[in-house]
Amino acid sequence: MLKVYSIDGITPVVHPSAYVHPSAVLIGDVIIGPRCYIGPLASLRGDFGRIIINEGANIQDSCVLHGFEGCDTLVDVDGHIGHGAILHGCRIERDALVGMNAVVMDDAVIGESSIVGAGAFVKAGMIVPARSLVIGTPAKILRTLRDDEIAWKRLGTAQYHELTTRSLNTLHETSPLTEVEPDRKRIQTSTNNKPKSRQG
Predict the structure, then answer these.
(1) What is the mean pLDDT of the chain?
(2) What is the pTM of this model?
(3) What are the pLDDT digits (tens) for 100-134?
(4) What whole-number distance in Å separates Cα of residue 48 and Cα of residue 51?
């Protein structure tokens, strides 16, 4: 059973084609669009501002999304939010990636097809142009992304599109085995040829 909570008469919305892990928590004014993936232990707390996750976006394990009253926290189409990232009252535009353990603060805008490096701290109000690589604490724009880097990001996001479907169809709670089976199979996906992780 999903951990979904209404507050002040406002209930989260989850599209039927989205996958939300049962340990994730959705509170109040949260809208999850089609084909989204919300990972284990993610917290999307819409008890002040609205949280919008648009089609095909993924919010990975232990991410925290929150915002102030009257503002939206938005992850647009195919946004890719790495493990442990924190988004607060910000806008992540279409096809952008926020790396693992990065923080994006209020009124910041991460432009389309940009990448925020792992562990970066994006200050409140920072505007990042499209196709930018952003790194550091505080975050600075390092350069414009190359086409191959954007392609790498899109391949990673495609893995999460596939994971959404796999999770809806095959993920279920179970008991552990007591020993490894002979010839134990490995996970095989259509995107197993993805390059190793760079940022999240």
Answers:
(1) 94
(2) 0.92
(3) 999 999 999 999 999 999 999 999 999 999 999 99
(4) 9
Amino acid at residue number 81: I
**Residue 139 vs residues 107, 118, 125, 184: alpha-carbon distances, Å:** 15, 11, 12, 44
Which two three-digit tokens encode residue 161? 């599109």
Cis peptide before 138 (omega within 30 of 0): yes
CATH class of 1-176+185-199: mainly beta
Per-position DSSP letters for the chain, written without gaps between them: --EEE-BTTB--EE-TT-EE-TT-EEEEEEEE-TT-EE-TT-EEEEEEEEEEE-TT-EE-TT-EEE--TT-EEEE-TT-EE-TT-EEES-EE-TT-EE-TT-EE-TT-EE-TT-EEPTT-EE-TT-EEPTTEEEETTTTEEEEEPPHHHHHHHHHHHHHHHHHHHHHHHH----PPPSSPPTT------TTTTPPPPS--
Query: How far is it, in rounded angstroms, from Cα 110 to Cα 128?
Result: 5
Q: pLDDT tens digits, residue range 53-68? A: 999 999 999 999 999 9
Indicate the domain borders of the chain. 1-176+185-199
Burial (Cβ within 10 Å: 0-12, 13-18, ≥19) of residue 82: buried
